[in-house]
From TrEMBL:
Spans through the membrane: none
Name of the featured protein: DNA ligase
Function comment: DNA ligase that catalyzes the formation of phosphodiester linkages between 5'-phosphoryl and 3'-hydroxyl groups in double-stranded DNA using NAD as a coenzyme and as the energy source for the reaction. It is essential for DNA replication and repair of damaged DNA.
Region (Disordered): 1-20, 207-226
The protein's enzyme class: ligase
Gene it is expressed from: ligA
SUPFAM superfamilies linked: BRCT domain (SSF52113), DNA ligase/mRNA capping enzyme, catalytic domain (SSF56091), Nucleic acid-binding proteins (SSF50249), RuvA domain 2-like (SSF47781)
Superkingdom field: Bacteria
One example GO MF annotation: DNA ligase (NAD+) activity
EC number: 6.5.1.2
Xref: InterPro entries: BRCT_dom, BRCT_dom_sf, DisA/LigA_HHH, DNA_ligase, DNA_ligase_AS, DNAligase_adenylation, DNAligase_N, Hlx-hairpin-Hlx_DNA-bd_motif
Family (UniProt): Belongs to the NAD-dependent DNA ligase family. LigA subfamily.
């Protein structure tokens, strides 16, 4: 059947004329369909019936079938049916996707506001937003067209989920604004509406499949499907909550950037509010705590942000989270159940944590069987006993915890629980350092529980990313004595692995390939995997930028480690002490013999050898007027420079903005390193921006 062409079309003169007319109609249909998608999925205000909408889609699909050369990646027909890419390839975020610190009470919220005021003075405006309980994503648009979507991952590297996100109807394939930036990166939350989640679970249960524990897991599981058509069958939605990067576009306030994203056709949650005082912030949180079920999506709190972007830059960040924002977590829903027994677990750092084994109970949409009791002091304070009926909640709606017992239902024979004196895994006498609440097993090398937890952490996606090395395989390797510490993993042979249960030729090949790939991971990943207390991914990146080899880290003094911006005394002391212990020195040497990468071979971004700053090493300190610190770093790297966070003899020059770090500036002066202002920095970049 021939597609119908618009009324009034001139007589067709061959294939070329017909194609020209078809192209005009295809463009018209795409605009119509995108407009109707926007009105239906974003504005919730449809203008046509489902039948009329379906007719437009059918007509577009017919034309694209006849003229396949007219099919474009952003066509509405391409939301479903494209082949998925590599599942799921790593994606490095242009700017890190930070997590937020939490406040669980008005007092903690007030303490955060007081810290903000101490740093920037009184009078800051705030933006209050709902905290959506879904899957955080990053969307990248180039010239207005969606080209990539990624999960948050560890904040620095996520997973490519583009093929699946294209199926989410509220995610525009093409932006609507008249003047779109060449590059736009936006952050958002993909979620499942509550009723849709309930229907999905009914369908899964009806087919004999396992239901999702809660809407957040439902959203994440729906996105992480091998077949995009499965994702398309799930009614996922998107709310955008932040602008990551927009080339050539600048805003003075976070609220302005959200309004601009709305004009670009991106869905922004309407339940946000600009306020002037802490009292208004607390009123917003209190209102939504009471009305959290009035919306058709799960919320577990509110997010409060300083509105002015200049003040955000002034407040800066810690090694884990920005200082200019906080998540106010709502008190979790609570249920009662019975404690069957109390046990303890020894974790990878030696910390011994008591937990309750419970009769299964549903709490906030998830089945809870185990719940943490935190430490000995908390068990004693709450007086939790075996056999007790207890109140259970999910702390931060994630980790199940026992709030306390119901005394009226306590069995008469229930006795106070006593913390064990020895490690349940290896029998070593437990120790507790002065000032700490936690007991620890000091047998770091010989404790089976610590060994398997460490090995699992070492192989995890956030560390060395050794796929196929999980708990079961790790336990088997440890039990056979083939692995005593993570370095031994790199000496495993095919002959050994072939002896493991259910390990065929393909399994052996896959694990050995993953181990080989791990030898070449960046140094910061190794630092995370080495299980050094307080050293997480963000701190590890900062440290390896300043000291780009394991030898440089070992030679660094405590004072030198303390100069790394974003690395506090606790992290620096922990790392310095760890690097001085003989058994850890031996571990590093074993890793060296195994061929594991112990230095950063190249900067995170490949420098332009022909750039204006090629071969130069640059340090940036203080606040710049025309760009953020991150933008300045990207600009310098794009010009061929290597940007580091600490000043050394190899530093070419230091860019000094307003309120520079005294340590960097003083060290540059002491070493005779050149310092330049922002105007000179821009001149060397070849940029024509003006600093007022």
């Amino acid at each position: 059947m021939q597609p119908e062409l618009p009324t009034g079309t001139p007589p067709l003169r061959g294939d070329e004329r017909r194609r020209e007319v078809a192209q005009r109609r295809v463009e018209e249909l795409r605009d119509l369909i995108n407009t109707h998608d926007y009105r239906y999925y974003v504005l919730d205000s449809p203008e046509v019936t489902d039948a009329e909408y379906d007719a437009l889609v059918r007509e577009l699909r017919q034309l694209e079938t006849e003229f396949p050369e007219l099919v474009t990646p952003d066509s509405p027909t391409q939301r479903v049916g494209g082949r998925p890419g590599e599942l799921f390839a790593p994606v490095e975020h242009r700017l890190p996707m930070r997590s937020l610190d939490n406040a669980f009470s008005d007092e903690e919220l007030a303490a955060w506001a007081a810290r903000v005021e101490r740093r920037i003075g009184a009078g800051a405006d705030y933006v209050c937003e709902l905290k959506i309980d879904g899957l955080a994503v990053s969307l990248l648009y180039e010239n207005g067209v969606l080209v990539r979507a990624a999960t948050r991952g560890d904040g620095f590297v996520g997973e490519d989920i583009t093929a699946n996100v294209r199926t989410v109807r509220s995610v525009p394939m093409r932006l609507r604004g008249g003047q779109v930036p060449r590059v736009l990166e936006v952050r958002g939350e993909i979620y499942l509406p509550v009723k849709a989640f309930e229907r999905l679970n009914q369908e899964l249960t009806g087919r004999g499949e396992r239901p999702f524990a809660n809407p957040r897991n439902g959203a994440a599981g729906s996105i992480r499907q091998k077949d995009p058509a499965v994702t398309a069958s799930r009614p996922l939605r998107l709310w955008c909550y932040a602008l990551g990067f927009a080339e050539g576009v600048a805003f003075s306030r976070h609220s302005e950037s959200l309004a601009w994203l709305e004009r670009m056709g991106l869905p922004v949650n309407p339940e946000l509010k600009k306020v002037r005082t802490l009292k208004q912030v607390q009123a917003f949180c209190a209102h939504w705590q009471e009305h959290r079920h009035d919306v058709d999506y799960e919320i577990d709190g509110a997010v409060v942000k300083v509105d002015a972007l200049e003040l955000q830059r002034e407040l800066g960040e810690t090694s884990k989270a920005p200082r200019w924002a906080i998540a106010f977590k709502f008190p979790p829903e609570e249920r009662t159940t019975r404690v069957k027994s109390i046990a303890v677990n020894t974790g990878r750092t030696g910390k011994v944590t008591p937990f309750a084994v419970l009769e299964p109970v549903r709490v906030s949409g998830a089945t809870v069987t185990y719940a943490t009791l935190h430490n000995e002091e908390e068990v004693r304070r709450r007086d939790v006993r075996e056999g007790d009926t207890v109140i259970v909640r999910r702390a931060g709606e994630v980790i199940p915890e026992v709030v306390g017992p119901v005394p009226s239902k306590r069995p008469p024979d229930a006795r106070p629980w006593r913390f064990p004196k020895k490690c349940p895994s290896c029998g070593t006498k437990l120790v507790r350092e002065e000032g700490e609440a936690d007991w620890r097993c000091p047998n770091r090398v010989g404790c089976p529980s610590q060994a398997v937890e460490w090995l699992f952490h070492f192989a995890s996606r956030g560390a060395m990313d050794i796929e196929h090395l999980g708990y079961v395989t790790g336990t088997q390797l440890l039990e056979r004595g083939w692995v005593k510490d993570p370095a031994d993993v790199f000496f495993l042979t095919a002959e050994q692995l072939g002896q493991l249960p259910n390990f065929g030729e393909k399994s052996v090949h896959n694990l050995l390939s993953a181990i080989e790939a791990a030898r070449h991971r960046p140094l910061w990943r190794l630092l995370v995997g080495l299980n050094i207390r307080h050293v997480g991914p963000f701190a590890a990146r900062l440290l390896t930028q300043a000291f780009p080899s394991m030898d440089a880290l070992r030679q660094a003094s405590l004072d030198e480690l303390l100069t790394v911006q974003g690395v506090g005394p606790r992290i620096a002391r922990s790392l310095h002490g760890w690097l001085e212990e003989p058994e850890n020195v031996r571990l590093i040497e074993k890793l060296r013999r195994a061929g594991v990468q112990l230095r950063e071979e190249a900067p995170a971004r490949e420098p332009d050898a022909s750039g204006a700053l090629a071969g130069r090493t640059v340090v940036i300190t203080g606040e710049l007027e025309t760009m953020s610190r991150e933008e300045a770093t990207h600009a310098a790297e794009a010009a061929g420079a290597r940007v580091t966070s600490s000043v050394s003899k190899s530093t070419s020059f230091v860019v000094v903005g307003a309120n520079p770090g005294a340590t960097k500036y003083d060290k540059a002066q002491a070493l005779g390193i050149e310092t330049v202002d922002e105007q000179e920095f821009l001149r060397r970049l070849g940029t024509r921006r003006t600093v007022h």
